[in-house]
Amino acid sequence: MTDISGIDEKGLEDILSEPTTATGKAVATLNGDIVVLGAGGKMGPTLAMMLKKVSEGKDIYAVSRFSDKEVKTRIKKAGIKTIETDLLDESSYSQLPKVKNVFYLAGMKFGTSGNQPLTWALNSFLPGLIARYYKNSRIVVFSTGNVYPLVDIQGGGAREDTIPEPVGEYAQSCLGRERMFAYFSQLYKTPVTIVRLNYANEPRYGIIVDLTLKILNDEPIDLTMGAVNLIWQRDANDYIIQAISLAKSLPVILNVTGQDTVPIRQLAEQIGNELGKEPNFVSQEAQTALLSNASYCFSKFGHPKTTLEEMVSMIVKWVTSGKKVLNKPTKYDIRDGKF
Question: Please, are residues 191 and 249 in contact by the beta-carbon 8 Å criterion?
């Protein structure tokens, strides 16, 4: 297990961006440079840093509004070229590099219930602009498992061929993102992979951080959403980069998550054991939850390298040491789609 004691955010991001040999081989097959759009969010910095580590002879560009200037600084120090811009502003597209390989991470989730027009603009309109601008590139599109319906907890999770039934405007707009990229992929023969992720975890955010803070603050844990899927962010980055090797027209769908259906009760008790505190549970588990099956991903790229036990231990140690968390709760327990 990786020892994260005594490290700062830069050190943590170095761990989360450590590539596998397979990732290096996947990037080595790519012709041309790489751009990460929406690189200033939760996963963008470490994804861009991982790409930089395996991209000898290639330029890596990170594009974002960069509301957090410290993030921009750390990305630049990693040798990545940064471009600060608002992707909704088409007049700024002259700044965007015309590269052959694109990782699209732009989008909006938090606060969507209060600003639905912006949510749809970012999640459904913007993808059309980008898909057209990069029609001659190979594109990996960052999506979400939220496009799936709630499924039976005992069923192993939604597969890539499960018919989407998004609940709420956030999830609907994310399906809109997928449909826009699919449309332009078909129109221009652009090779695309659409990655449906849930849920990435690292010491600054994620379901494990959410539950750790609830237990520390003696807040009740609602069990209605009784189970989740979890994956360590480094492993997720690994899969997302390798996913570019699958890109086709029409787009390939790829679920990215962990191997197990993890009961919230069990996870909270595991965290409580690390903390020496008892979780406070309310309600009862429903028969359905938002769950994905990543068997296809594992068949292509192998199983995740980081276990649930390792994730819990590392994250609890980080949070209890008082180090920075992002204060971006996953809201995994929301069942009506109103984020």
Answer: yes
